Amino acid sequence: MNSCNKLFRCEVIVKFREDWYVYVDKKIVVDDKTFKPIDKNKRKIKISFTIEAEDLDSAKIHGKSVAEQILAIMCLKTNVGAIVDDFDVFEISNIEPKVEEGNRSIVVRDVAKIKDEVFVGIRLEEKLLNEIIRFFNALERIKDDEREYILRMLYWYNKAVLEKDDINRFMLLWTALEVWKTYKFGSSIGGKHKEKMKTTLQRYGYEGNFDDIYDLRCDIFHEGVREGVKRHLPLLEQCIHRILDELKEYLVDNP
């Protein structure tokens, strides 16, 4: 640890949709990250981890970034969206052995908080959590600008899978696609945006008519409402899933 840094413990409460969620049924520790059930209805998980930072403000920023990256990778692996329901950061100023419990006690000096039908629950077993953290670590090691594009795309994808409304879901998936387009084919500033979006969709096997879906995109973004979403949404989702498959292969190849 850097001699100027302090240790902080982050505790994140993660919340899922009522009808589409992941859960753990026991405490599981992977690396220094702990996953623990806290809700009898299995709609929330507590994730805890330790970070280094110079002060509490820096710890809040870094800790929330780590939490969002864990959620992004969790969404990549499970196709289940989640939000940070609560986030606590404590400075670990003293750690002493507790003989009676065979554990350690943490003395808290300061705390910061950040607030921001069919039911399907996916159980997060230790094997899957190990894969999630392995992807998390792989993402940590790639270049900052590349990681930023990947996380931004996953941010919008996470919002899309949380969304029940088809039009909102389409808009969020399209935004994720545009981020990926920039990552793969460069910025469209100065023109050629439509051409690059067509190239992106074709690369990932879009099976519909490009002009039709692009017109739909324009009508939704500029007019707000448009019929035809239910016909095009599944085709767009297929493209996004192929992108996610490519991303997972990339992370596997860059452990």
Explain what this protein looks like in three dimensions.
The protein is an alpha+beta fold. It has 2 domains: 6-139, no CATH class; 143-253, no CATH class. Helices cover 50% and strands 26% of the residues. It has helices at 56-78, 126-141, 144-162, 166-185, 193-203, 210-223, 229-253, and strands spanning 6-16, 20-23, 28-30, 33-37, 44-53, 82-98, 103-114, 120-123. The strands form 2 sheets. The protein has a 6-stranded antiparallel beta sheet. Strands 2-8 form a two-stranded parallel sheet. Strand 3 (28-30) and strand 4 (33-37) form a beta hairpin. Helix 1 packs across helix 3. It is globular, with a radius of gyration of 21 Å. The two termini are 23 Å apart.
Index terms:
8 strands, six-stranded antiparallel β-sheet, alpha+beta, two-stranded parallel ribbon, 255 residues, 2 domains
Shape: globular
Q: What's the N-to-C terminus distance?
A: 23 Å
Strand elements, count:
8
Figure out the total of helices. 7
Strand content: 25-35%
Tell me the count of domains: 2
Q: How would you classify the helix and strand content by structural class? A: alpha+beta
Query: Helix content range of the residues, please?
Result: 40-55%
Spans of at least 5 consecutive residues whose pLDDT stays below 50 are 94-116
Integer-rounded radius of gyration: 21 Å
Average pLDDT over all residues: 85
Main sheet properties = 6 strands, antiparallel
Strand order of the largest sheet: 3-4-5-1-6-7
